[in-house]
Specification:
The protein has about 170 residues and is α+β, with helices and mostly antiparallel strands. Helix content is about 25%, strand content about 45%. It contains 3 helices and 9 strands; from the N terminus they run αββββαβββββα.
Length: about 170
């Protein structure tokens, strides 16, 4: 089934907001693009959920996603870039989209000594509700992660001593 251009544009605009809301730390605005019970899952190159300290990066609701990442990103500067979406119309009310991703995270005040750069793909389901398109299911899988040397050392120490990142 072909994707109507207005559907692709509406979803692409909302995806742009997803990245902008994170980078500008506008966490409560995620309610503007995601259903309350949207699932957010972030996976490593081997397919296992990414561990951020003691937390497995899978969240069963928009609010649980916001609660965790609003704290996690508090001291980070970030930039999220997405490639063009690969759209598949499942039905007139549901669309699957795959987006390429590249992101950069920098711990504030470290002049880039503590940083992470990565890439991968988002696979998402968007559904039409009340005339608009809403994120229902997001699963990001990394294809690579590069960290600064200091970041790698800190992650190792956190893991050894069970330190939480938030």
């Amino acid at each position: 089934m072909a994707i109507p251009p207005e559907v692709a544009l509406a979803i692409t605009t909302r995806k742009a907001k997803y990245g902008r809301f994170a980078d500008l730390k506008q966490w409560e605005r995620y309610h503007e693009i995601a259903l309350p019970d949207a699932f957010f899952g972030y996976y490593d190159t081997d397919g296992s959920p990414i561990r951020l300290g003691k937390t497995s990066a899978t969240f069963p609701s928009t609010q649980s996603f916001i609660s965790f990442f609003s704290k996690f990103f508090e001291r980070l500067d970030s930039l999220h870039n997405f490639g063009p979406g690969d759209f598949e119309m499942i039905s007139s009310e549901e669309v699957k989209v795959i987006w390429a991703l590249e992101d950069q995270l920098f711990l504030k005040g470290t002049a880039g000594w503590v940083s992470l750069r990565g890439g991968g793909y988002y696979t998402e389901i968007w559904v039409k509700r009340d005339g608009d398109w809403w994120l229902k299911d997001l699963r990001m899988r990394r294809t690579y992660t590069r960290t600064s040397f200091l970041t790698a050392v800190l992650f190792l120490l956190f893991a050894l001593f069970g330190v939480s990142l938030v």
